[in-house]
């Protein structure tokens, strides 16, 4: 059980590459937010399409991609996709999501 959040709430997402298995599920679900780099690991990317390689770097989740990003976090076999609320930084989906 995770803390639910309003659909219109601004979310951010980051990936812990240390746990990524490279299966690419996230990039299939939300290709505008996740992409596999040449190292075979998933990274988030800005709205300009630039991959963010800094460890723990989060990007804003476009509203149209929010459900796909949430589904990615739920399905991620590495449990390494972290989705948090922008307003308070609380993880709402992912391995560190706060129980409701
Ligand atoms: S779904 Fe998770 S484990 Fe799979 S590529 Fe994406 S971040 Fe890595």
Automatic annotation (TrEMBL):
Which superkingdom, per the lineage?
Bacteria
Q: What InterPro entries would the database entry show? A: 3Fe4S_ferredoxin, ET_Ferredoxin
Q: Which UniProt keywords apply?
A: 4Fe-4S, Electron transport, Iron, Iron-sulfur, Metal-binding, Transport
Q: Which cofactors are reported in the record for this sequence?
A: [4Fe-4S] cluster
Protein task: Ferredoxins are iron-sulfur proteins that transfer electrons in a wide variety of metabolic reactions.
Name used for this protein in its record: Ferredoxin
The organism named in the record is Dactylosporangium fulvum
């Amino acid at each position: 059980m995770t803390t639910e959040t309003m659909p219109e709430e601004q979310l951010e997402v980051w990936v812990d590459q240390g746990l990524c298995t490279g299966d690419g599920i996230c990039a299939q679900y939300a290709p505008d937010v996740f992409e596999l780099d040449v190292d075979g690991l998933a990274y988030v990317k800005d709205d300009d399409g630039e991959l963010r390689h800094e460890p723990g770097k989060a990007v804003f989740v476009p509203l149209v991609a929010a459900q796909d990003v949430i589904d990615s976090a739920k399905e991620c076999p590495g449990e390494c996709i972290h989705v948090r609320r922008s307003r308070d930084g609380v993880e709402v989906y992912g391995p560190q999501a706060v129980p409701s």
